[in-house]
Design brief:
Layout lengths: L29 E6 L3 H16 L3 E3 L7 E6 L4 H17 L3 E5 L5 H7 L5 E2 L5 H11 L23 E5 L1 E2 L10 H5 L3 E2 L2 H13 L4 E5 L14 E2 L2 E2 L2 H10 L7 E4 L12 H5 L6 E3 L7 H7 L5 H14 L4 E8 L6 H14 L3 E6 L17 H24 L5 E9 L5 E5 L10 E3 L11 E9 L4 E5 L1
Parallel strand pairs: 1-2, 1-3, 3-4, 4-5, 6-9, 9-12, 13-14, 14-15, 18-20
Antiparallel strand pairs: 7-8, 10-11, 16-17, 16-19, 17-18, 19-20
Helix pairs in contact: 11-12
Enzyme class: transferase
Main location: cytoplasm
Function: Catalyzes the methylthiolation of an aspartic acid residue of ribosomal protein uS12.
């Protein structure tokens, strides 16, 4: 196990902290849940807990108050693996009965090499095996008159927003990534099933749908963009259908993990027409063509700049967020400088960055010319300084504007933490309202005039 170069606060892929609000009746069997990793893993946790709730289990965020604990692990980076092993060890110390699932669960020998006493190890989205393991550890004891499950299932996010997973797996073969090995090739959900789930969420009061997958742009490719029950499995059609759910309502539809394929330009008119949010989360990863080739990723960074210019011409309000890797094997100072120059031209709104690290099983491990740790740290510092300056300038330009925000939290002092349409939960910034919040509730969408800007956050007052 290598030391982590990327502590959790440097990883822009993490899901929000899971929220548990489940009352426990006397004598009810209780299962704890620790959900690590990305929003896709959080959706897996929600599906597992929904099935368990339907069988009469209560859900606890506390190890000591549970009859058994499920740890949903992440295996994206070695630092994520270390975090997962630490969480498993903590659960074993505090509870003793631990079931492991998720991406790292695909490496059972690796887990049992450190924690041989776990009850069961299952891979990602192996829901039935998780349930079997829970049944073996803690038999169900349902009370059909009490254990009523809401129509939308168990949600681990605040009630006003929800992740909507449209596919599993990925067909890309990026050398630094082992996600396809753990989660398999692209497997898209039928469009009508996605729309049905989204409709139930909207009916239950969800104000924001965050569309997620490993490769959102490729949605439907594996099922030949099949049309069924009036809905076609193509990201443009799906985005249009999701936007239509908000007719006459306040509904935000936000797209994550969108690869910049040519057909992405067909989404931009939907943003300009306010059917979906003018927001694209695109994993560019780097800008130098040689670095991108070593990553086994598309290497047309200059064409990407042309695409960005075209998107902004059609939808001037579009917000672009991305993630990058610095210190990839073979990255020269010249290649890194190309990335900084590209950032100057691209002027992305929201940016996250990883320092490269080896991951067991990744082909990039075998590349020559690995970059020393101190050089990676220096490049990360310089990259984030550039990104911060761009963010600060873009936010300063918003002072005086009136914009809609969604309220995520109101603390005991009456300060409201909100997000604009340019901000996804946890990974982007916030807008704070520190006075005049009387009558506001979490989940409200209200108009605010921006009166102050920082490096990543805004402050405003109600109009």
């Amino acid at each position: 196990m290598t030391n982590s170069a990327n502590p959790p606060d440097l990883r822009p892929d993490l899901a929000p902290k899971a929220r548990f609000q489940d009352p426990v009746r006397e004598g009810q069997p209780t299962v704890g849940m620790v959900s690590l990793g990305c929003p896709k893993a959080l959706v897996d946790s929600e599906r597992i807990l929904t099935r368990l709730r339907a069988e009469g289990y209560a859900i606890s965020p506390d190890y000591s108050g549970a009859d058994a604990v499920i740890v949903n692990t992440c295996g994206f980076l070695d630092s994520a693996k270390a975090e997962s092993l630490e969480a498993i060890g903590e659960a074993l110390n505090e509870n003793g009965k631990v079931i492991v699932t998720g991406c790292l669960g695909a490496e059972e020998d690796y887990i049992r090499g450190t924690h041989p006493s776990v009850l069961a190890v299952t891979g990602p989205h192996q829901y039935e095996q998780v349930l079997d393991a829970v049944h073996g550890a803690v038999p169900p004891s349902p009370d059909p008159f009490i254990d009523l499950l809401p129509a939308t299932g168990v949600s681990l996010t605040p009630r006003h927003y929800s992740y909507l997973k449209i596919s599993e797996g990925c067909n890309h073969k990026c050398k630094f990534c082992i996600i396809p090995d753990m989660r398999g090739k692209l497997a898209s959900r039928p469009a009508h099933a996605v729309i049905h789930e989204a409709g139930k969420l909207v009916d239950a009061g969800v104000k924001e749908l965050l569309v997620i997958s490993q490769d959102t742009s490729a949605y439907g490719v594996d099922i030949k963009h099949a049309e069924e029950r009036g809905h076609r499995a193509h990201i443009t059609d799906l985005a249009r259908d999701l936007g239509a759910l908000g007719a006459g309502k306040d509904l935000w539809v936000r797209l994550h993990y969108v690869y910049p394929y040519p057909h992405v330009r067909n989404l931009i008119p939907l943003m300009a027409d306010e059917l979906i949010l003018p927001y694209l989360d695109i994993p560019f990863q780097h800008a130098h063509p040689d670095t991108l080739k070593r990553m086994a990723r598309p290497a047309a960074a200059s064409k990407t700049l042309d695409e960005i210019a075209a998107w902004r011409a059609d939808c001037p309000d579009i917000t672009l967020r991305s993630t990058f890797i610095v210190g990839y094997p073979g990255e020269t100072e010249e290649e890194f400088q190309t990335l900084l120059d590209w950032m100057d031209e691209a002027q992305l709104d929201r940016v996250g960055c990883f320092q490269y690290e080896n991951v067991d099983g990744a082909r990039s491990n075998d590349l020559p010319d690995h970059v020393p740790a101190e050089v990676k740290q220096d490049r990360w510092d310089r990259f984030m300084e550039k990104a911060q300056a761009i963010s600060e300038a873009k936010l300063a330009a918003k002072v005086g504007q009136v914009m809609d925000v969604i309220v995520d939290d109101i603390d005991e002092d009456g300060i409201a933490t909100c997000r604009t349409k340019t901000d996804a939960p946890e990974i982007d910034g916030n807008l704070f309202i520190d006075e005049g919040t009387e009558g506001l509730s979490v989940g409200d969408i209200v108009s605010v005039e921006v009166d102050e800007a920082g490096e990543y956050d805004l402050w405003g007052r109600r109009g």
